[in-house]
Amino acid sequence: EIAQEAEHKGWHLYIVGGAVRDLLLTQNNEKVLLQDIDLVVDGFHRSADVGAGVELASSIQKKYSNCRLSVHGEFQTAALLWHKDPEFGSLWLDIATSRTEFYPYPAANPEVEASSIRQDLYRRDFTINALAVRLTPPREGELLDFFGGILDLKAKEVRVLHANSFIEDPTRIYRAVRFAVRLNFEIEPQTEAYIRYAIESGIYEKLRLKNHVAPALTTRLKAELKYILEANYWKPALQLLSDLDALKCLHYQVTLDEEIWWQIRCASRWLKYLDPDNNIGHWLIRLEILISQINFKERKQLALNLQLPKESIERIKIVNILHSELQKNLINCQKVSEKYKQLYRHKLPDLILVAVNSSKKIRRIIWQYLTQWSKVETPLNGNDLKRMGYKPGPKYKVVLDKLLSLTLDGEIQSKEEAEMIVE
Ligand code: CTP
User: Is the ipTM reported for this complex over the cut 0.85?
Assistant: First the structure.
């Protein structure tokens, strides 16, 4: 229907990018569920204020009331979001405009058309993402492959389109790694050389500098990092980023030495067990450990530049203090109840960050707290005390806390024993 609408207006419409790549990679009978589709429309428009993509998207939205329209990127790109369908999830449709000139051209002129979509595809990152399928006549369904994308799909190679690509957009280094690991492709040798060259040339400084210098860049870098660190292939991806020296893009002090690797893996195991529904955002904790190598001031600045969530920035601020406080205090605690008192006020992610960076002894205490002691309940509650004839008041808390301590220390085991002690 979108193609018909475009055709009706005398425009050309293409499906481009990841959707084409993923469709071509699927085996014969395999079903693919596309949730993020990029379209490019090539057509002139009377007004220079709105691109053809925006106009096309608006017409579609008028037909389908169940989708939401948003416009971004200086009026050139429109996105349509279809709400969550219980069976298929949600669908994002991005419609970009390939033509930047706003004067008419003969719609039937194939040369003008070819050069416009070719230019659009040439601006993209990798050959495997620079494929398009024409959706409007003539020759609808035709696959456009100007840069050898099909050959690279067959050879399983991630190949960049031009030498300056990584200098212009360092987030593409992370994208190269993401596609290589996710699709089980190799980064083509020349492309790898361009990546290494970009990193050696200090491109990461551009990312590290204050937010006002490159806000869009850091936002995109965060998006790529999140993508990588929350994917099920995060381990090989992180390893490849490290092999390429690309973690430097975050900060020149970030490396993946044995210690940091161990900490990230240990935290991930703990998180999997303690937060199986991933409410905390495991990717964030991995990132926080990764950047924990940077000195405090610069780490905080980086977290702000990357616009990490508030709770993450808070954690970065307090974790060092919490670490030294717990090291000092836990060592002197004998009883379980004393250890409990040191730990119960702190949040799970804070404790995990401290644990992975602590001695085995401290780590064990924190693990016991998280898996056992934090689940212990007081044998009596306020209602029990009331039933026993005690008047409600601040004393309740004192009594209940004492009962919890005695339970934790194994000195009372049943409700009856607790009642006897209260009496
Ligand atoms: N793109 C690019 N450079 C970037 C980001 C995106 O050239 N830094 C281009 C690529 O051609 C990509 C398209 O924009 O195919 C859409 O980007 P995105 O949706 O992020 O990537 P997909 O290829 O669709 O990948 P995924 O399947 O992971 O969403």
Answer: yes
